[in-house]
Amino acid sequence: MSVSECCVKGFKWDGEPAGRVGKLGNNDVYIAGDNPEAAVLYVHDLLGWSFPNARLFADHLAEELKTTVYVPDFFGGEVVSFELVLTGQFDKIDLPGFLGRNGREMREPEIFDCARELRKKHEKVGAIGFCYGGWASFRLGAREHNPPLVDCISVGHPSLLTKKDIDEVAVPVQVLSPEHDPMYSPEMRLHTFETLMKLSLPFDYQHFPKVEHGCLVRGDDKQPGEREAMVRGKNAAVAWFKQFLSSAA
Protein backbone atom coordinates (compact mmCIF):
# COMPACT_ATOMS: atom_id res chain seq x y z
CA MET A 1 0.00 0.00 0.00
CA SER A 2 1.24 3.49 -0.76
CA VAL A 3 0.40 7.16 -0.45
CA SER A 4 0.85 10.07 -2.82
CA GLU A 5 2.16 13.62 -2.64
CA CYS A 6 -1.33 14.85 -1.73
CA CYS A 7 -0.93 13.16 1.66
CA VAL A 8 1.68 15.70 2.74
CA LYS A 9 0.72 18.73 0.66
CA GLY A 10 -0.72 21.59 2.67
CA PHE A 11 -0.64 24.89 4.50
CA LYS A 12 0.17 25.80 8.09
CA TRP A 13 -2.64 27.62 9.89
CA ASP A 14 -2.21 30.76 11.98
CA GLY A 15 -2.53 30.53 15.74
CA GLU A 16 -0.76 28.89 18.67
CA PRO A 17 -1.96 25.61 20.20
CA ALA A 18 -3.29 26.07 23.74
CA GLY A 19 -2.98 22.52 25.10
CA ARG A 20 -0.28 20.69 26.99
CA VAL A 21 2.14 17.82 26.38
CA GLY A 22 2.04 14.70 28.52
CA LYS A 23 2.06 10.90 28.31
CA LEU A 24 -0.60 8.42 27.26
CA GLY A 25 0.70 4.97 28.08
CA ASN A 26 4.12 4.81 26.45
CA ASN A 27 3.42 7.59 23.96
CA ASP A 28 4.06 11.31 24.13
CA VAL A 29 0.76 13.10 23.64
CA TYR A 30 -0.71 16.55 23.06
CA ILE A 31 -3.76 17.07 25.29
CA ALA A 32 -6.49 19.69 24.87
CA GLY A 33 -9.33 20.07 27.35
CA ASP A 34 -9.98 18.45 30.69
CA ASN A 35 -13.16 16.38 30.83
CA PRO A 36 -12.86 13.18 32.91
CA GLU A 37 -15.96 11.65 31.36
CA ALA A 38 -15.53 11.98 27.58
CA ALA A 39 -12.49 11.87 25.30
CA VAL A 40 -11.54 11.89 21.63
CA LEU A 41 -8.46 10.10 20.33
CA TYR A 42 -7.09 12.05 17.35
CA VAL A 43 -4.93 9.89 15.06
CA HIS A 44 -2.73 12.34 13.16
CA ASP A 45 -1.87 12.32 9.47
CA LEU A 46 1.60 11.92 7.92
CA LEU A 47 2.73 15.30 9.24
CA GLY A 48 2.61 13.89 12.74
CA TRP A 49 1.46 14.86 16.20
CA SER A 50 3.44 18.11 16.40
CA PHE A 51 2.04 19.67 13.20
CA PRO A 52 0.33 22.85 14.49
CA ASN A 53 -2.83 22.28 12.43
CA ALA A 54 -3.53 18.99 14.20
CA ARG A 55 -3.15 20.62 17.59
CA LEU A 56 -5.29 23.61 16.64
CA PHE A 57 -8.01 21.26 15.37
CA ALA A 58 -7.80 19.34 18.66
CA ASP A 59 -8.17 22.62 20.55
CA HIS A 60 -11.35 23.42 18.62
CA LEU A 61 -12.83 19.98 19.30
CA ALA A 62 -12.00 20.18 23.00
CA GLU A 63 -13.53 23.64 23.39
CA GLU A 64 -16.69 23.02 21.42
CA LEU A 65 -17.34 19.52 22.75
CA LYS A 66 -16.23 20.31 26.31
CA THR A 67 -14.23 17.10 26.18
CA THR A 68 -10.60 15.98 26.36
CA VAL A 69 -8.79 15.46 23.06
CA TYR A 70 -5.57 13.44 22.83
CA VAL A 71 -3.13 13.61 19.89
CA PRO A 72 -0.46 10.96 20.58
CA ASP A 73 2.83 10.66 18.71
CA PHE A 74 2.45 7.50 16.63
CA PHE A 75 5.68 7.96 14.65
CA GLY A 76 8.19 7.48 17.46
CA GLY A 77 9.37 11.07 17.37
CA GLU A 78 9.87 11.11 13.59
CA VAL A 79 8.20 13.85 11.55
CA VAL A 80 7.99 14.79 7.90
CA SER A 81 9.80 18.11 7.49
CA PHE A 82 7.29 20.98 7.66
CA GLU A 83 9.71 23.17 5.73
CA LEU A 84 9.85 20.74 2.80
CA VAL A 85 6.06 20.45 2.79
CA LEU A 86 5.39 24.17 3.00
CA THR A 87 7.93 24.97 0.28
CA GLY A 88 6.71 22.23 -2.05
CA GLN A 89 9.95 20.22 -2.05
CA PHE A 90 8.12 16.91 -2.18
CA ASP A 91 10.92 15.21 -4.13
CA LYS A 92 13.08 15.47 -1.00
CA ILE A 93 10.56 13.61 1.18
CA ASP A 94 11.14 9.85 1.35
CA LEU A 95 7.51 8.77 1.73
CA PRO A 96 8.15 5.06 0.98
CA GLY A 97 10.88 4.95 3.63
CA PHE A 98 8.75 6.86 6.10
CA LEU A 99 5.83 4.47 5.61
CA GLY A 100 8.18 1.52 5.92
CA ARG A 101 9.06 2.70 9.41
CA ASN A 102 5.54 3.82 10.33
CA GLY A 103 3.22 1.50 8.42
CA ARG A 104 -0.02 -0.04 9.61
CA GLU A 105 1.54 -3.18 11.04
CA MET A 106 4.18 -1.17 12.90
CA ARG A 107 1.85 1.34 14.54
CA GLU A 108 -1.48 -0.43 15.00
CA PRO A 109 -0.59 -2.05 18.38
CA GLU A 110 0.30 1.25 20.05
CA ILE A 111 -2.76 2.96 18.58
CA PHE A 112 -4.89 0.25 20.19
CA ASP A 113 -2.95 0.58 23.45
CA CYS A 114 -3.61 4.32 23.60
CA ALA A 115 -7.34 3.73 23.13
CA ARG A 116 -7.28 1.16 25.94
CA GLU A 117 -5.63 3.72 28.20
CA LEU A 118 -8.40 6.18 27.41
CA ARG A 119 -11.02 3.54 28.26
CA LYS A 120 -9.51 3.38 31.74
CA LYS A 121 -9.76 7.16 32.16
CA HIS A 122 -13.03 8.08 30.43
CA GLU A 123 -16.57 6.74 30.23
CA LYS A 124 -17.01 7.65 26.56
CA VAL A 125 -14.31 7.60 23.86
CA GLY A 126 -14.48 8.63 20.21
CA ALA A 127 -11.80 8.50 17.53
CA ILE A 128 -11.06 10.86 14.65
CA GLY A 129 -8.46 10.44 11.94
CA PHE A 130 -7.47 12.26 8.77
CA CYS A 131 -5.47 10.73 5.89
CA TYR A 132 -3.14 8.21 7.63
CA GLY A 133 -5.42 8.36 10.66
CA GLY A 134 -8.39 7.17 8.60
CA TRP A 135 -7.53 3.48 8.46
CA ALA A 136 -6.60 3.57 12.15
CA SER A 137 -9.96 5.01 13.16
CA PHE A 138 -11.78 2.20 11.35
CA ARG A 139 -9.54 -0.33 13.08
CA LEU A 140 -10.27 1.23 16.46
CA GLY A 141 -13.97 0.68 15.75
CA ALA A 142 -13.55 -2.97 14.68
CA ARG A 143 -15.82 -5.63 16.16
CA GLU A 144 -12.81 -7.73 17.23
CA HIS A 145 -12.40 -5.55 20.31
CA ASN A 146 -14.29 -6.68 23.38
CA PRO A 147 -15.12 -4.40 25.03
CA PRO A 148 -15.16 -1.83 22.20
CA LEU A 149 -12.16 0.51 22.14
CA VAL A 150 -14.26 3.48 20.98
CA ASP A 151 -17.93 4.42 20.82
CA CYS A 152 -17.86 6.11 17.41
CA ILE A 153 -15.44 7.29 14.72
CA SER A 154 -15.07 10.22 12.36
CA VAL A 155 -12.79 9.85 9.33
CA GLY A 156 -11.60 12.53 6.91
CA HIS A 157 -10.10 11.79 3.46
CA PRO A 158 -8.74 8.37 4.59
CA SER A 159 -5.55 6.80 3.24
CA LEU A 160 -4.38 3.17 3.38
CA LEU A 161 -7.96 2.05 4.02
CA THR A 162 -8.98 -1.46 2.95
CA LYS A 163 -12.35 -3.05 2.28
CA LYS A 164 -11.68 -5.38 5.19
CA ASP A 165 -11.36 -2.38 7.51
CA ILE A 166 -14.81 -1.23 6.45
CA ASP A 167 -16.31 -4.72 6.60
CA GLU A 168 -15.25 -5.18 10.23
CA VAL A 169 -16.32 -1.86 11.73
CA ALA A 170 -18.92 -2.10 14.48
CA VAL A 171 -19.52 1.46 15.72
CA PRO A 172 -21.19 4.56 14.23
CA VAL A 173 -19.15 5.97 11.34
CA GLN A 174 -18.81 9.47 9.93
CA VAL A 175 -16.91 10.06 6.68
CA LEU A 176 -15.78 13.54 5.59
CA SER A 177 -14.97 13.20 1.91
CA PRO A 178 -13.57 15.83 -0.49
CA GLU A 179 -14.69 15.52 -4.11
CA HIS A 180 -11.16 15.04 -5.45
CA ASP A 181 -9.36 12.31 -3.53
CA PRO A 182 -7.13 9.69 -5.19
CA MET A 183 -6.63 7.96 -1.84
CA TYR A 184 -10.36 7.27 -1.33
CA SER A 185 -11.57 6.00 -4.68
CA PRO A 186 -15.16 5.94 -5.97
CA GLU A 187 -15.03 2.15 -5.62
CA MET A 188 -14.05 2.43 -1.96
CA ARG A 189 -16.72 5.05 -1.32
CA LEU A 190 -19.37 2.78 -2.83
CA HIS A 191 -18.13 -0.12 -0.73
CA THR A 192 -18.38 2.08 2.36
CA PHE A 193 -22.01 2.96 1.58
CA GLU A 194 -23.09 -0.58 0.76
CA THR A 195 -21.29 -2.20 3.68
CA LEU A 196 -22.43 0.19 6.40
CA MET A 197 -26.01 -0.10 5.22
CA LYS A 198 -25.77 -3.89 5.41
CA LEU A 199 -24.29 -3.61 8.89
CA SER A 200 -27.14 -1.28 9.96
CA LEU A 201 -24.74 1.13 11.59
CA PRO A 202 -25.40 4.85 12.06
CA PHE A 203 -23.58 6.46 9.14
CA ASP A 204 -22.98 10.08 8.19
CA TYR A 205 -21.36 10.87 4.85
CA GLN A 206 -20.37 14.47 4.19
CA HIS A 207 -19.41 15.43 0.62
CA PHE A 208 -17.14 18.45 0.09
CA PRO A 209 -17.36 19.65 -3.54
CA LYS A 210 -14.48 21.26 -5.44
CA VAL A 211 -11.81 20.55 -2.81
CA GLU A 212 -9.00 18.00 -2.61
CA HIS A 213 -7.55 15.33 -0.34
CA GLY A 214 -6.06 16.86 2.78
CA CYS A 215 -8.12 20.04 2.64
CA LEU A 216 -9.87 19.53 5.97
CA VAL A 217 -6.71 19.75 8.08
CA ARG A 218 -4.13 21.07 5.62
CA GLY A 219 -6.17 23.45 3.49
CA ASP A 220 -5.36 27.09 2.85
CA ASP A 221 -7.51 29.09 5.25
CA LYS A 222 -7.03 32.17 3.08
CA GLN A 223 -8.80 30.50 0.15
CA PRO A 224 -12.58 30.95 0.49
CA GLY A 225 -13.55 27.50 -0.81
CA GLU A 226 -11.02 25.64 1.33
CA ARG A 227 -11.69 27.70 4.42
CA GLU A 228 -15.42 26.98 4.15
CA ALA A 229 -14.70 23.27 3.77
CA MET A 230 -12.47 23.26 6.86
CA VAL A 231 -15.08 25.05 8.95
CA ARG A 232 -17.83 22.76 7.72
CA GLY A 233 -15.72 19.68 8.39
CA LYS A 234 -14.94 20.79 11.94
CA ASN A 235 -18.60 21.58 12.59
CA ALA A 236 -19.68 18.21 11.22
CA ALA A 237 -17.25 16.35 13.47
CA VAL A 238 -18.40 18.32 16.51
CA ALA A 239 -22.06 17.55 15.77
CA TRP A 240 -21.25 13.86 15.25
CA PHE A 241 -19.40 13.44 18.52
CA LYS A 242 -22.13 15.29 20.42
CA GLN A 243 -24.54 12.56 19.39
CA PHE A 244 -22.45 9.65 20.64
CA LEU A 245 -20.34 11.04 23.46
CA SER A 246 -23.36 11.88 25.56
CA SER A 247 -21.46 13.54 28.39
CA ALA A 248 -20.05 15.97 25.79
CA ALA A 249 -23.48 16.95 24.48
Q: Overview of this structure, please?
A:
This protein has 249 residues and is an alpha/beta fold. The chain has one domain: Alpha/Beta hydrolase fold, catalytic domain (Rossmann fold, 3-Layer(aba) Sandwich), CATH 3.40.50. It has nine helices and eight strands. It has an eight-stranded mixed sheet, with helices on both faces. Helix 1 links the parallel strand 3 and strand 4. The longest helix is centred in the C-terminal third of the chain and has 21 residues, at 224-244. The chain starts with 19 loop residues before the first strand and ends in a 5-residue tail after the last helix.
Known CATH architecture: 3-Layer(aba) Sandwich
| CATH-defined topology | Rossmann fold
Strand order of the largest sheet: 1-2-4-3-5-6-7-8
- Mean of the pLDDT scores? 88
Q: Kindly state the percentage of residues in helix.
A: 25-40%
Could you give the distance between the termini? 38 Å
Q: What's the CATH H-level superfamily name?
A: Alpha/Beta hydrolase fold, catalytic domain
| Radius of gyration from the alpha-carbon trace, in angstroms | 16 Å
Secondary-structure topology with pairs:
Elements: E1 20-24, E2 27-32, E3 38-43, H1 52-65, E4 68-72, H2 82-86, H3 95-102, H4 104-121, E5 124-131, H5 132-140, E6 152-158, H6 163-167, E7 173-180, H7 186-199, E8 203-212, H8 215-218, H9 224-244
Parallel strand pairs: 3-4, 3-5, 5-6, 6-7, 7-8
Antiparallel strand pairs: 1-2, 2-4
Helix pairs in contact: 1-9, 3-4, 4-5
